[in-house]
Amino acid sequence: MIGLIVNPVAGIGGPAGLAGSDGADVQRRAAERGARSRAAERAERALAVVAAGRPDEHVVTAAGPMGEDAVRSAGLRPIVVWHPRDPSSSSDTTDAARALADVGVELVLFAGGDGTARDVAAGLPEAAVALGIPAGVKMYSPVFAVGPGAAGALAAAWLDERGLPTAEREVLDVDEEQLRRARVEPRLHGTLRVPYRAGRTQARKAATPSDEQAAVRTAARGAASRLRPGVRYLLGPGGTMAEVARELGVEKTPLGVDVVLDGRVVVAGASERELLDEVANGPAQAVVSIIGGQGFLLGRGNQQLSARVVEAIGDDPVMVVAPEQKLIDLGGRPLLVDTGDAAVDARLTGFASVVTGPTTTSIYPVHAPENEGAVHAT
Amino acid sequence: MSLPIAPKPAIRRFHQARWDEPVIFELSTPGERGVLVTPIEPGVRDAVGDVVADLPEGLARRTPPALPEMGQMRVLKHYLRLSQENLGADLNVDVGQGTCTMKYAPKVNERIITTPKLAAMHPLQDPADAQGALEIIWRTERMMAEISGMDEVSLHTQGGSAAIWANIAMIRAFHEANGEGEQRREVVTTIFSHPSNAAAAKAAGYDVITLHPDADGYPDLAALKRVLSSRTAAIMVTNPEDTGIYNPAIREWVDAAHGVGALASYDQANANGILGITRARDAGFDVCHFNVHKTFGTPHGSGGPGTGANAVSAALAPFLPGPRVVREGDRYSVREAGPLSIGAIGPFHGVVPNIVRAYAWIMALGADGLRAVAETAVLNNNYLMKRILEIPGASAPYATGRRRIEQVRYSWQELFEQTGVGSEEIGVRASDFGMHYWTSHHPYVVPQPFTLEPTESYSKAELDEYADVLAEIAREARETPEVVRTAPHNQTVHHTHHDDLDDPDRWAITWRAYRRKYPDAVGA
């Protein structure tokens, strides 16, 4: 059974030039400027793909503009399990997600952007599976299908094949007030489990692990096998780092930076200050993965690993760990660092040696968008 | 009936035969026979005795094999029906199987290899009785040496990963012989080189460093220079890469590798776009290999075992696999592998029928003909590329706007984003038009990929037909996507359940395994 949540104000601030749509005030201003949300229309396009193969499918949803209307327009049958307050707010998205999970929805489709993803993640239990229909202004989180049609195709495949492989992906969101002041610092707010469809024959000729979880494990094993005694390792946030911690047999805070020395955690959820103290105690190295769909290594979701921490570590400050597919998913775009310090960023740019397994690495370019004066988050 | 007959539609109304043919074991009738084995003549029996009784106990079966029992005509029908349920290489326009280099393997060469002079030969035959076969092996090696510019060649391996394994095994043996085996622990490759290069190096115990393309989509020379060191054993690259992109700085790549004492290995499995135009040795490479079934007109793997040609510089020659054929005057003899050789990789002299086919193919074309093969293949590819890029929703990522050599890895990403119809589904739908289209492109770098390689064999009319079919499917994806999504409609089989192929508890690759795992389906 699939479910749908539409954020009826998603993306409304984009065309209005407001760099996002969070908060009632912005939404009101956008509406005054004549903006309309595309979320319902994009949700309908996704569901139309499902309807083509399964015209009688039921979709569990929230009332009215939060899903029911889109389900009906696509010709499918809504089962309404949440009635939003009037006016609706972001807490309705969270409550609706919880209500969908409570009635046993296996795949939650949501139409919106990063803010919507964050609200959905807050309402869903850990094992629940969700997929974004891209309709927002900001979409830093790699939890969205490439388009509404693609989201619909995945949902149809989910129904046809009674489930698909899933992978844990980060939910990032930018503080829009910062964005309006031209400063982008998305923070990591949690993870969502999203379905993916490996090409049917993709794995057939492969000697490498086809399954994403196996690839993450192989990369994590590669990192673990490179750790040396007497060195403090600053493990960054994210799913790959959680896997590294599992390999080492230590607990990991999902969103924090943890310091590991000789196989045990010295500081969990460390602040920048604590990291500086630890680095001062002896040789150290930060271990990070790629955060979000934009390819950031530093400066997004792991701001504790600041320019000062990187500087204090000295030579070879960062070990990058990721399965090859994460590099491939960048589509040729470089990895990015943005520590806020141009000199530190310059040191980190060039090429990163990315650990993909115990005996494998990939060489991938690293850029510092701040140093290049690049325009971002438009 | 009246003439003239109605013209054929622009797009072929193909329909595959559907015979609902059972598995051959299910056709068995106890007691039915196709051939009655001739009784042993009394004189023979007197001379050799009871052969069966003389068999060592461990070799004798306790129960007879459960072979199907059926008459000849039924066997003939069975296999002809199965063949009709296949999109055979000789029936369809096979350009959708890019990187495989599906070219015409001349039928006349099948006549040549079935001559009893070759077919009845035993691999342990005295060389004095096998001078013709040994001469063909020797002459084919010399032609491969000329084509690659290398000094020595072995036709020992069966091509593909076995040939790549031979390359890295020779490289490893070379460094060990020079006392640098411990020091040189790294092999550098590119993400668009054939993945067997990385896999073979890893299997040989090396740490593998993979380079991604530069901002222009070309192999990244700066990245290469960044990773080369005294620890590098070799670079192992395909060129043109699987995208059809030719590395314009290939000479600099080889020089950079040599600069740190590393060797340079060239995967030329598919040399179809460069035959007679460039040579591996002229670019400085130390090792290269051809897949004879890709480049030299012999059938692909499913038509029998393949053949590889491993070519090396004089410095690497002592490490070639063995045994080798050597010429002394006008006589040919067999020399066992030397002390530095990596030894046998395939049995005896490799797949001799393929060597004979390739010899015939090269001799029929001559040097000018080989160059014409490459020029025609490249021309065909660039024509097809123009046709494909005219289809809305299709693109050729990486090195955008630049020429490709003999193949192109395209993407349907734009169409997928608009319609949700992906390459996988387009491939299935293509079979409804009698066209083969393949989607295995590891690693999965280009999104929604398809790789077309027209080779020199296909006519303009056939390339047009293929492009027309893809344009039609792209139109369907927009206008009637359910037709594509529910394909195939004109085929023998519908969707395969690939989960069954991934689960050891469910796959059944023999009849015995099928009976064991699915007792209810077979009955008592």
UniProtKB/TrEMBL annotation, chain A:
Q: Do the record's keywords include Heme?
A: no
Q: Which SUPFAM superfamilies match?
A: NAD kinase/diacylglycerol kinase-like
Quick one: a GO biological-process term for this protein?
NADP+ biosynthetic process
Q: Which keywords does the record carry?
A: Kinase, Transferase
- Pfam family for this entry, one: NAD_kinase
Q: Name one GO molecular function term.
A: NAD+ kinase activity
Record bears the keyword Zinc-finger: no
Q: Which PANTHER family match?
A: ACETOIN CATABOLISM PROTEIN X (PTHR40697), ATP-NAD KINASE-RELATED (PTHR40697:SF2)
* Protein name, UniProt field: ATP-NAD kinase
To which species is this protein native?
Agromyces kandeliae
Automatic annotation (TrEMBL), chain B:
Q: Which domain of life is it from?
A: Bacteria
Enzyme Commission designation: 1.4.4.2
A single Gene Ontology biological process assigned to it is:
glycine decarboxylation via glycine cleavage system
What the entry lists under InterPro entries is as follows: Aminotrans_V_dom (IPR000192), GDC-P_C (IPR049316), GDC_P (IPR020581), PyrdxlP-dep_Trfase (IPR015424), PyrdxlP-dep_Trfase_major (IPR015421), PyrdxlP-dep_Trfase_small (IPR015422)
Q: Which UniProt keywords are present, listed alphabetically?
A: Aminotransferase, Oxidoreductase, Pyridoxal phosphate, Transferase
Q: Name the Gene3D superfamilies for this protein.
A: 6.20.440.10, Aspartate Aminotransferase, domain 1, Type I PLP-dependent aspartate aminotransferase-like (Major domain)
- The answer, when asked if Endoplasmic reticulum is one of the entry's keywords, is no
Q: What is the annotated role of this protein in its UniProt record?
A: The glycine cleavage system catalyzes the degradation of glycine. The P protein binds the alpha-amino group of glycine through its pyridoxal phosphate cofactor; CO(2) is released and the remaining methylamine moiety is then transferred to the lipoamide cofactor of the H protein.
- Reaction equations catalysed: N(6)-[(R)-lipoyl]-L-lysyl-[glycine-cleavage complex H protein] + glycine + H(+) = N(6)-[(R)-S(8)-aminomethyldihydrolipoyl]-L-lysyl-[glycine-cleavage complex H protein] + CO2
Q: Where is the Glycine dehydrogenase C-terminal domain?
A: 374-486
Protein name, entry field: glycine dehydrogenase (aminomethyl-transferring)
Per the record, what is one GO cellular component? glycine cleavage complex
Domain (Aminotransferase class V) ranges: 153-328
Q: Which GO terms describe its molecular function?
A: glycine binding; glycine dehydrogenase (decarboxylating) activity; pyridoxal phosphate binding; transaminase activity
